Amino acid sequence: MKERLEKLMGYIRGLGADYGDIRVKDIAEEAIVLEDGKVKQIWNERSKGFGIRVYAGGSLGFSASNDLTKLEETAKKAYEIAKASQILQAEKTVLAPKPVVTAAYATPVKTDPFTVPLKDKLELLMSCEKIMMAVEGVSKTSSNMSFRKYEVIYCDTDGSYIVQNFCQSGGGISAIAQTETDTQTRSYPDSFRGNYHRAGYEFILEMDLPGHAEEIAKEAVALVNAPDCPSGIFDLVIDSTQMTLQIHESVGHPTELDRVMGYEAAYAGASFVKTENLTEELIYGSPHVTIVADATYPAGLGTFGYDDEGVAAQRTVLIDKGVFKGFTSSRDTAAKAGLTSSGAAIADGWHNLPIVRMTNINIMPGAFTPDELIAGVEDGFLLSVNKSWSIDDKRINFQFACEAAYEIKNGKKTGRIFKNPIYSGITTQFWGSCDGVASEEYWCLRGTPNCGKGQPGQTARVGHGSAPARFRKVKVGVADVK
Ligand SMILES: [Zn+2]
After folding, report:
1. Which of 242, 317, 330, 394 suits 160 as a labelling partner, its CA being 20 to 30 A distant?
2. pTM score, whole prediction
């Protein structure tokens, strides 16, 4: 393959292109979904193909194919698209420099999930379903696991050649309780398909799904019979599951440099952050808030050796003790801002262009135990597991709902649970109200396998490291509170 791709790079240079690169991807996926103790779906897919980018005269052309006998033909098409695009060129695209490398990277895997018999996977999920269904009051159950294994071979006209092999494993369980007037769901280890790591089947076993099945089933029943969460201004402790979503929507997306530059506006696509904020100070949060984009942190869904532009994985500080410091970027967006790429350009599959993507967006742990965070709350709630989200297209105003709110009075959890907690805020004010993050012992890495961006739409798999954190005077509920 190396020889063929290097020959192709020679062909692209011969066309008169400024630069060209190729990603050959071979992707295998498996998904298993159970509902109410029955198999709802077993899905397997294999997809192999390549995408070629060619820059000519400062314009980009892209073409992809699943026919590996058509490398030259596809490269020529990309070149012709680049040439044709020059007619509408507003300015020449410049790519930030990067080192030329020959490298290999692989996700560390103990047990290849594709070698685990389907029977074992079904038995594990079925055991969870049985435990949940045995709890009185539970009306529906669901459980799932999915796996993704893929190889990326990257080559460019500068001379880089990189082979990477990735493996992703994850899953989760949910119990639903219904009354005549209400439905409530409780999920473990997270909502929206659970938790995912770049790891082997060992990660499924580490999550101990059966060990949490009874607890979430009981909580679903408790929730459907619980009162609605009161509205008002409250202090909140937000657990690491909901912190994941909070970081993703209100820090991860607004600090993507393509959004900041206005190249990406779909799906609440713009940002209140400006490139000028690299020099003009932007206070994003309190001194407790340090958030990094770290593609080097082990096992995250955003962990790799090199991004899809052949740029090495990095740790970029986005917010340092509350002050905005940097963006996730690609080679073209970085060059425009006078930076080098943060190594965050990823393409979904082989048929898409690389675009700026979150890697692992992690909040750094603080010095508190969760009990200490709770002890500092006179009247408030501990919120757990995301239920829904809404954020404006500049990513300033947000409103998030959680599965459960646990009441805190005078520094202690009272044992009362409330349903439908909703909280809202303004991004910088909210992060500014953070006065404590739990320590490393309570910090964990979660993976989001379904981050949507771009037109045509692309799905990214991104990671978030988080710990429970405390926020002061947050608006809870939808009622008008002063
Ligand atoms: Zn997203």
Report:
1. 317
2. 0.96
